[in-house]
């Protein structure tokens, strides 16, 4: 069958496989970045509401139940994880975690630039965006003793 294929077919196939693998890695990194940003934002919101409205652990427990009911197929919204989100936001102030999209436009490909301009969402920076959520939790537990507190 190989005699029926063009001479450059194997080289093209190898390039195509590499492009597919590269896209898979980029997609996984983008998903991780968005989840870390989401979790940080939820943590920041909880911190703000606790400071302004006196939210306590019972509100976090109820929030966890309500989120689980609304998104039964998703994990990551337990009371414990919501408390980690709060600790994460407390450990990393906004200026360390996010930067306005306009500040990063020159470094992003055109498609991402357009998306950032449309959404106006902050973009997770540096190492925090490259580390999975569970590794960020491990860092919190190791480096920041208060992160285990409710």
Please write out the topology.
Layout: H1 9-53, H2 57-70, H3 79-91, H4 94-97, E1 98-99, H5 110-119, E2 123-124, H6 126-130, H7 133-143
Antiparallel strand pairs: 1-2
Helix pairs in contact: 1-3
Task: Sum this structure up briefly.
The chain is mainly alpha-helical. It has helices spanning 9-53, 57-70, 79-91, 94-97, 110-119, 126-130, 133-143, and strands spanning 98-99, 123-124.
Explain what you see:
It is a single chain. This protein is mainly α and 150 residues long. The chain has one domain (8-148). Helix content is 68%, strand content 3%. The chain contains 7 helices and 2 strands, in the order ααααβαβαα. It has helices at 9-53, 57-70, 79-91, 94-97, 110-119, 126-130, 133-143, and strands at 98-99, 123-124. The protein has a two-stranded antiparallel sheet. Helix 1 packs across helix 3 (79-91). It is elongated and about 75 Å long. The protein starts with 8 loop residues before the first helix and ends in a 7-residue tail after the last helix. Mean pLDDT is 78; it is low at 100-124.
With strands numbered from the N-terminus, the spatial order across the biggest sheet is: 1-2
Unreliable stretches covering 5 or more consecutive residues: 100-124
Q: What's the end-to-end separation, in Å?
A: 65 Å
Give the number of domains: 1
Which percent range fits the helix content? 55-70%
Radius of gyration: 21 Å
- SSE ordering: HHHHEHEHH
